[in-house]
Amino acid sequence: MCGIVGYVGMKQAQDVVIEGLRRLEYRGYDSAGIALVHEGDLATDKRAGKLANLEKAIAETPLPSSTTGIGHTRWATHGAPTDANAHPHLGNESRLALVHNGIIENFAELRRELEAAGHELRSETDTEVAAHLLESELATGVGLTVAMQRVCGRLEGAFTLVAVDSHDPDRVVAARRNSPLVVGLGDGENFLGSDVAAFIEHTREALELGQDQVVTITRDGVEVTGFDGRPAAGNRYYVDWDLSAAEKDGHDWFMRKEIFEQPAAVAAALLGRHTEDGRLQLDEVRIDDAELRDVDRIIVVGCGTAAYAGQVAKYAIEHWTRIPVEVELAHEFRYRDPILTRNTLVVAISQSGETADTLMAIRHARAQRSKVLAICNTNGATIPRESDAVIYTHAGPEIGVASTKGFVTQMVACYLLGLYLAQVRGTMYGDEISRIVGDLEQVPGQVGRVLERADRVYQLAEELVGAKAVLFLGRHAGYPVAMEGALKLKELAYIHAEGFAAGELKHGPIALIEEGLPVFCVVPPRGRDQLHGKMISAIQEIRARGARTIVLAEEGDPAAADYADTFIALPRVPTLLQPLVAVIPLQLFACQLATLMGHDVDQPRNLAKSVTVE
Ligand code: F6R
Q1: Are 37 and 166 in contact (CB under 8 A)?
Q2: Separation of alpha carbons 571 and 578, rounded Å
Q3: Do the first three CATH levels of 254-451 and 454-596 match, i.e. the same topology?
């Protein structure tokens, strides 16, 4: 949510900042802006709409040469996406420029105070008050670092702030509270970014900052303090992916590239997590075995797609460990005053590791002394940092706004966690665990086989251009897959889509079925309980009422094929693992249909990649 870039060095800051914004645009694309320091003055430009609008404006009216600059790509919170509300914002005397991600909750009272003191605010944003406060502090004679420390002490809410002072051209100062910010360490140059994609082209050496810290970058130095001015240290690390991971690699969309990366992503998520004989080794789970044996309840929290991964986890973890598992949307969790004890394990799933709702949920859980385990894709993000343990999903950067490889690897991490708990608690025999580990090891190849048949799904998308609504049905672990399929379609194709548990149909939703309505049906593998037969009955019922059935079932399933208007074959996998392969055609379908409808798949309307505001 909002992308931020800062640079000091020897290169043209405009090029570095614009390139960084391009890589961060997935975080928000309501407007974009830049500020450069040039000969004791500020040069700025900012435009509503996508970064391309800003680039066009700069091409028409070039900015002066400069080696210090900041930039911003916005997901609007306070104020409509207009030029005036775009960042950077300037102080009263236009000495200082500021960009911001987050929400300053006490901005209204600060604004009143500033206006009473004669400040003229030009936008509807919360950010502008911080710009004016900073400039007022500078006017007292302190430098930008001290001004930032003082102002941060007055702000409430979540924020990353990055500022330049035209009187101090070789310095960029930033601060963070509950909002992401990383420093890129270069040679004779340093960088700031909402995430490492902002500077990955220039350096893979990074510094992760803690909460409530201020960082000052110059060409040759990086200095970190707390808001109280006391020296602090960041955590230096090496980014284990490179520029190619942040490029589309010949695909039309990042999303499509990421869909096709899933065999490799699943393999990476499994790598090093078990011995050759299938014994789990999750060294990152720093909660000791005795405590894991005492766990009497698990609550999985997450939002959107991550919450659906949690719903899949519920089926697997309960089955393997017999520990009751609840799944809760992170934004609902803390407000219902959940019952939490020392023996409750809270599992927080978040691709970005920065989702504010999930972060607040884990803070609540830890305050009640529950242990928190994060499942996360982003090294060093706030959620894993604030958790007792973490399982990283190792999917590599996910840039498409709609989560794909993030989701699949979250499920893999949940399976690993379930098996690990079963191992520690002795609820499964070693050979059972190693058999399932063996099944998981087959998944990269099986996902690859589904992807080889992408053309069939693309053809279906062509046939369904113009559909007004689409339903998705599933049972058991296929139910969250149905909801995920519907979510992908809503967010990319802007079509009304719903995922239902197939058994629920006859209790109401079947009234929606009408002639020609496309309904995707995720059929469980044959042989387990009566799930398969029950699902086939549901398909017959909707087909009898005119639905166009698109049936996803294992290859060679004659009963499923008989009732399919379109049959999409899945490899044979155990029921609990089927979501890993069943979701793939649904991702491909949403991506392709949105493409055919002319939508921007990587930047769907109104959305942003990581939701860092509550
Ligand atoms: C949907 C999607 C979102 C995210 C949700 C949580 O395609 O991407 O629903 O899953 O915003 O994000 P993370 O996993 O970063 O916490």
Answers
A1: yes
A2: 9
A3: yes
Cα 12 from Cα 468, distance rounded (Å) = 49
Partnered with residue 37 across adjacent β-strands are 42
Domain ranges of the chain: 3-243, 254-451, 454-596
Residue 158 has pLDDT above 80, yes or no: yes
Helical axes 478-493 vs 304-321, angle rounded to 10°: 170
Architecture of domain 454-596: 3-Layer(aba) Sandwich (3.40)
Instruction: List, for residues 189-241, the tens digit of each pLDDT value.
Output: 999 999 999 999 999 999 999 999 999 999 999 999 999 999 999 899 999 88
| Ligand 1 pocket mutation, candidates 376, 607, 609, 611, criterion most atoms within 8 A of CB | 611
CA neighbor of 353 nearest in space, from 382, 390, 388: 382
> What is 254-451's CATH number, 3.40.50.300, 3.40.50.620, 3.40.50.10490, 3.40.190.170?
3.40.50.10490
How far, in Å, from the CA of 449 to the mean position of ligand 1? 26
pLDDT tens per residue, range 278-301: 899 888 888 899 999 999 999 999
In this prediction the pTM is: 0.87
Q: Is the CB of 42 under 6 A from ligand 1?
A: no
Whether 421 contacts 270, CB under 8 Å? no
CA of 99 to the centre of ligand 1 (A): 24
CATH annotation of 3-243: 3.60.20.10
Minimum-distance ligand 1 atom for the alpha carbon of 378: 15
Instruction: Indicate the DSSP class of residue 283.
Output: T
Segment 359-417, tens digit of pLDDT: 999 999 999 999 999 999 998 889 999 999 999 999 999 999 999 999 999 999 999 99
* Statement: residue 528 has pLDDT above 70: no
**Distances 192 to 458, 543, 609 between C-alpha atoms, Å:** 40, 56, 19
Contact call for residues 138 and 154 (beta carbons, < 8 A): no
Retrieve residue 357's tokens. Answer: 């709702």
404 close to ligand 1 (CB < 6 Angstrom): no
Q: Exposed, middle or buried by CB within 10 Å (0-12, 13-18, 19+), for 109?
A: exposed
Ligand 1 midpoint to CA 233 (Å): 30
